[in-house]
Design a protein that fits this description.
Elements: H1 5-18, H2 31-38, H3 42-54, E1 58-61, E2 65-68, E3 81-86, H4 94-107, E4 111-116, H5 121-134, E5 138-141, H6 153-161, E6 166-169, E7 180-183, H7 185-198, E8 204-209, H8 213-228, E9 238-241, H9 253-259, E10 265-268, H10 271-283, E11 293-298, H11 301-305, E12 311-314, H12 318-333, E13 341-343, E14 347-348
Parallel strand pairs: 3-4, 3-5, 5-6, 6-7, 7-13, 8-9, 8-10, 10-11, 11-12
Antiparallel strand pairs: 1-2, 12-14
Length: 357
Amino acid sequence: MEMPKYMTLVTWIKNKIESGELTYGEKLYSENELSTMFGISRQTVRQAINILVQDKYLESRQGSGTYVVFNASVKREPTMTIGVVTTYVGAYIFPQIIRGIEDVLTKSGYSMQLAFTHNKVQNESRVLRSMLEKGVDGMIIEPTQSGLPNPNFEIYEEIQRQRIPVLFINSSYPGIKIPHVSMNDHAAGLLATQYLIHAGHKRIAGIFKSDDHQGHLRYAGYLDALLKAGYEIHDENVLWYSTQDIPDFSKFVGIILRRIEGCTGLLCYNDEVAMQIVDMMKKNGIAVPEDLSLVSIDNSDLADLCEVPLTSVAHPMNVLGETAAQNLLHLIQDHTFKATVDFEPAIVERKSVRVLV
């Protein structure tokens, strides 16, 4: 099969850059020049340039032109080390994710440089800069406060300029074109809410995390489930919280009781939240699931340990970690590898939901 015209140009420019004929900082031929040289339309030229911009070979500067940003003279010696950055490490779902990553890396001869951010952007900046300075062959990163604008975008651009393969886990930053391996959080919110709807619940409250993108996606799934069922959306039944608000929800007791008023069902952002809600309801004379049915997300150990075992959407945990490590290793060998994976969720039934129908 004949190569498309735009890919012929992509390959030609890449070869020129990688061979050193076009050097770092040098201005590329104009669209008109390339169009004439290859006998193709300017639209085809733009298509090729857009691909090379995405692959960090070129950078388009408005009013100035297109420049080479790939430095062929910079050669990184393999370190056989992968940087792994998560928001937390020692508890909840994180040990299993990290174990999955480590198992794959170890079997492939790599060591793991592990760091965590406590979901604080200043920690993310420090950790990423440290890894850049020390040198790693690739990075697996859980984004920090992915639901908010991030001040560390320049560091991510530097990582890409240095052509260090990088993969996000659990979430991603809107606006940064980096592959991710995650649970399908929209589907998780949809599935959890539909479970409550199928159990006969019509007025369903929700608690979601505002500063992580997962919270936005789970909320979107929650909304879609209610709309598909023909139910009205009630903003007063939704509570948003941020990283700074955990682990102590006791200050929210009045707000939470108002949010669930008139509701028979509640979707919690995760098992950590749900476990606190079960305790809070007990202290305020509200029985789970008799008075309030509850579904959470992640299916962590807490779902079993909770006083009322939680019906919860399962997070892939270990498999997610293994897949992330495998896909990053593929990216190290081939930067064009399609590494994004969204795991479809499944629900694990326990005792926190009362069937009304």
